Amino acid sequence: MNEGFKRELCRSLGATGAQELETIQSLWSGYGKIARYGLEGATAESVVVKLVRAPTERDHPRGWNSDFSHRRKIRSYEVETAWYEAFAGQCDSFCRVPACHASAAGDGELMLVLEDLDAAGYSQRRSRASLADMKHCLSWLASFHARFLGVEAEGLWPKGTYWHLETRPDELEALDDLPLKDAAERIDKELDACQFKTIVHGDAKLANFCFDDAAQKVAAVDFQYVGGGCGMKDVAYFIGSCLNDTECERMDSTLLDWYFGELRTALERCGSRVDGKQVVREWRALYAVAWTDFHRFLKGWSPGHWKVHSYSERLSREVVERLGQ
Question: Which tens digit of pLDDT belongs to each residue from 170-211?
């Protein structure tokens, strides 16, 4: 961390000093790291700091290292900063996110100083999710989508998610599933034409949820691809991050029913005047479309990925056939 950033970190928290305790993880493609810092003389004992610095030699693990992808990544960190500065404070305990203590940028670097969720009691992570775990995450998504239903994504991605069509031309070009490739624009337009738009997390995989010590609540992190869109984008992507093809076939209805029940409850809790039944009706019909949209990206980006499975192929085929009629 440069000295200017360290001074800003200390100033924002009233600390007399800050020392890096550990690197939590490196950022994708070598764009920096997330680290835990211990504080001296501050109320908080620790914070989590996201430090972004573009690498001099970009090295994407799957070879996607073009200038276009570089600009997308840099924009994603700018969007995440905008999210924490303008939107995160609207989240409540039902869609818990870390508080942002400070942000700074300069000389090609960016810093976010975030609440340490481990210290706040959300120290558990999951590599595999139980049904109860998935329901907690879907409850978070339902509350998040209800909270931001109808809110303009000003300063965020106009279309949330990291895989949407406009930001992934190279992956579309590489896609060798021609019926899916031909339908890509129609899939994107059908999702974009939905009446009920919200702000979507954009990368709502299991790894981005932090569970509390009692495994009763979750908080979410990583808002680089937050933006406008249909809530089904988050839901389909989340379910796909947890389950294989057989599990998806067996559990999708149960999980969707849970999410939509929680969404209606959350809309009532928020005092929304929107008819929850209408939202459910529209979004349920778009679940397979949202799943196919991600499947389109994945087959172009990494056709051998474990998520390219029979369930995804079936939903994709049904959507493509319907849109071609």
Answer: 999 999 999 999 999 999 999 999 999 999 999 999 999 999
Q: How many Cα atoms sit within 13 Å of 15 on the Cβ side?
A: 23
111 membership: H or E segment, kind and range = strand 109-115
Residue 221, number of CB atoms within 10 A of its CB: 18
Of 320, 293, 309, give the one whose Cα is nearest residue 178.
Answer: 320
* Residue found by looking up tokens 């994708």 in the block: 28
Nearest to 184 by CA among 168, 201, 204: 168
| Dihedral (Cα; 19, 24, 27, 33), 10-degree rounding | 10
Convert 49-87 to b/e letters by CB count within 10 Å (16 or more is b): bbbbbbeeebeeeeebbeeebbebbeebbebbbbbbeeb
Question: What digits encode the pLDDT tens for the residues 105-121?
Answer: 987 889 999 999 999 99
**Neighbour count for residue 284 (Cβ, 10 Å):** 15
Residue 311 has pLDDT above 90, yes or no: yes
Is the full-model pTM beyond 0.85?
A: yes
- Can you tell me the distance from the alpha carbon of 124 to that of 209, in angstroms, rounded to the nearest whole number? 9
Domains of the chain: 3-115 (3.30.200.20), 131-323 (3.90.1200.10)
Output DSSP code: residue 96. B
